[in-house]
Amino acid sequence: MRRLLLLLVLFAPSCLATGLDTLLAEDRLRIRSWLQPAEGIVQGQEVRLLIEVSTPRWFAGGTGIKAPDVPGLLIMRRNEFAVNLSRREAGVTWVVQRWQLELYPQREGNFSVPPVALTLAVNDADLGIVRGTVETGPLTFAASVPAVLADTPRWLATPSFNVRQSFSRPLTGLLPGDAFERSFDLEATRLTALMLPEPRLTELDGLAAYPDLPELEDRSNRGEATALRRQTVTYVVEKPGQYQLPAQVITWWNTETQSLETASLPAVTIDAGAALSAEAAPSLPVEWMQVLAAVIAVALMALLLLRLQPFADTPLRTARRALRRGDPGMAVQALYRWLNLRQGEPRWLSLRESAAEAEQEAAAGQLLAAAYGREPQAVTERGIVRALKKHRRRNATAPENPLNPL
Question: Taking a C-beta distance cutoff of 8 angstroms, is the pair 79, 220 a contact?
Fold first, then answer.
């Protein structure tokens, strides 16, 4: 019995260590790996590492793959399952598993991909089920930066790229307090969604921008990967004026045609009711001037009657009701309508500026963040409505001169 145990201890490790090696040596198991493409690679381009495992019998269990870690090289495994196929050679049918890893060089230079470890279970006619780990051979490739992109800080390497923009409403006839959404849609093939650039946002005085968190999605259809990114930005008009969102240009390298291309979005003009200057205002005939004067007089009378009505503060009531039911967006719009009715200064004030004068700047910031911020927030400060009304009433009734001058 002791001799039998001794023989098992001596020979068992040798059998375990040489099972898959024996199949490889006797051409009863094949491991092959290669890069696609193998040359002409640019920085950021997708390189496919293909691994093919084949046997004339069949696989007795799942195959495990351990991806290596290479500095400066993003390695992904987009498909969790292999492509199974068969091949017939010299009258023998081989069962084939083809695995794929995606490599994205993040810099230019030479890269060395170390062996990839594969855990296999193969059924053999002589040895039965053989389990173990084998490795692919090492591979090398070089990535470069095209000369025309040497001075470009950010660009993409893809066979196709598209960018679009859309708006939630027409951009004419807007008033302070109005909001609209601008959506960017970016789409590229053979890239990941994380590699798509973020659209540039321009800060404009009087037009506040509140970007949402991007929506990222990676799709795969018959081995062709598509990356999608949607970015939505909410704009709020704080002051009347004519605003222009500048054009945007995204540079990308076409890996199919080996050429430089650009995708652009045109500039966008936003009409928020800016008054024309005296020089640019067109001249009107005398008859039209009289009609215009009559219209202005009627409008002034209507405005005077409106100010005398007890319902002049209706927007404030709307704002209070909106805050009570947790609707900060409606509250902001109602406050802007009230500011438009109550505006007495020769210049327009945004909600932030008006709240700052009433010592409610923090409350206004909280309200705007809750209405147009990236993440929903609860509004806990409701005293801003009362403070704004009190401040406007005090400024409207304050005498310009002392009552009893010396």
Answer: yes
pLDDT tens column, 279-296:
444 555 556 667 777 778
Contact 394, 358 (CB under 8 A): no
**Could you identify the residue written with the tokens 């605003």?**
243
Q: Which two tokens stand for residue 298?
A: 């009627």
Using the structure block, give the residue that is written with the tokens 């080996």: 258
**What is the model's pLDDT at position 312?**
46
CA distance 335 to 395: 18
Q: Checking DSSP bridges between strand 109-113 and strand 47-55, what pairing results, if any?
A: unpaired
Q: From the CB of residue 371, how many other CB atoms can be counted at a distance below 10 Å?
A: 22
Are the C-beta atoms of 156 and 54 separated by less than 8 Å?
A: no
Residues forming beta bridges with residue 165, ordered by sequence position: 184
- C-alpha 147/C-alpha 107 separation (Å) is 14
Is residue 96 exposed (0-12), middle (13-18) or buried (19+ Cβ within 10 Å)? middle
pLDDT higher than threshold 60 for residue 91? yes
CA atoms within 13 A on the CB side of 263: 22
Token output for 89: 């050679």
Q: What is d(CA 261, CA 152) in angstroms, rounded to the nearest whole number?
A: 13
Q: How far apart are CA 170 and CA 281, in angstroms?
A: 25
What's the residue count for the chain?
A: 406
Strands 139-144 and 41-42: parallel
Average pLDDT of the chain, as a whole number: 82
224 vs 242, more confident: 242
pLDDT at residue 106, rounded to an integer: 95
Q: For residue 387, give both structure tokens.
A: 């403070």
Instruction: Give one DSSP letter per residue of 263-297, joined into a string.
Output: EEE--EEEE--PPPPTTTSPP--HHHHHHHHHHHH
